[in-house]
Amino acid sequence: MRIAPQLSVLFALAFAACGSDSSRPTDTAGDTSGEVTGDTSGPDAPDPDTDDTASPDGEDDDGGDGMSGDTSEDAAEVVAPCVPDAEIFDDPRVIDCGGTLTFVFFGEDTSPSQCPSYYRFNDTKYPTLEALAAAQNCSASCEYRASIGVDLIGCESGFRTGYEQYEPVDKEATCLEAVYSTPIGLLRDLCTWPEKACRADCNADCAEGTIGTSNATQLSGSAGTLRVTPTTNIGQSFRAETAGILTGIELRLTGCSAGLPATIAILDENGGEVGWAELASATLPEGCDSTANLTAGAPGVGYFALETSCVGVEIGDTLTLVVQYPFCDPEIETCADGVGLGYALGNPYTPGTLFTNETAVPDQDLAFKVFVK
Fold this sequence. Notes:
mainly beta; 9-stranded antiparallel beta sheet; 24 strands; 1 helix; 6-stranded antiparallel beta sheet; 2 domains
């Protein structure tokens, strides 16, 4: 059974006016350090840790007269009273106010009453974004609205979390390609969020094709071959010997059934999946049994490339690799045995142990090599 990768993209909102232009110049004014720039005192920001990318914000408690909040504003700068025929939902937008990314809200009446559209900052409504910007020391040159929501496993916490991406309303404007709403605030650079910092687009050590140096190893396959079946997964726990990014694992594999790929999942100390990969090589040594050992050094044909999972390890961390049966449903098709894994007896690798499904076999260990960058 394949355990699918944990990174999934939720297209929570998509707007035709939103876009991303990689050639667009970047506006770095007011943000030279990449620090968190979330607004903690401004308008009600939507919760960025939910699946709803742009949670609607209802009408004001004053019944929609548009005059709550700062009554000292010039009458020409606030929206005239109008009672809509239906509820107006505020669409969250992001702008720069004094160098800080800030949520404001856009409301548009599509009911027959056709009350004027407005922009809201806290409880005060303005007829245009320019009017709001002038009153609140904000810039109207770059306005962002929600485009997608992204769900991921956090680099720091190891738990599921997420963020929302906001893209420029005017894709021709000279603005950032996107800004991001995260649980720690609004960010110009998503890589400054610790939960994202280990990903491939934020860490060069996670770039595709990166191969680290040999770390934990157990090379002996002298006891023969254990075979993965539709009901039996084979695993091995191991302990990291250096800190870095887990870039791959090589196993002593043999192919008994042609055309069956192998998959591997990496579990943390709590049993949570933190990485997944399919066998990089399409060719394995033939035969159902082998007593050959792994060769020290560079990875061979039984190598699973894990670099883009960007699994960070510290010295002493214990992880478990699980070789899973490929995609075959025994209830509807005939499923032959999968790949074979070379192993050894006598507990040659004392920091870890072999597993059959979830049952530890303390006196046996797979032949394996771990690579860390």
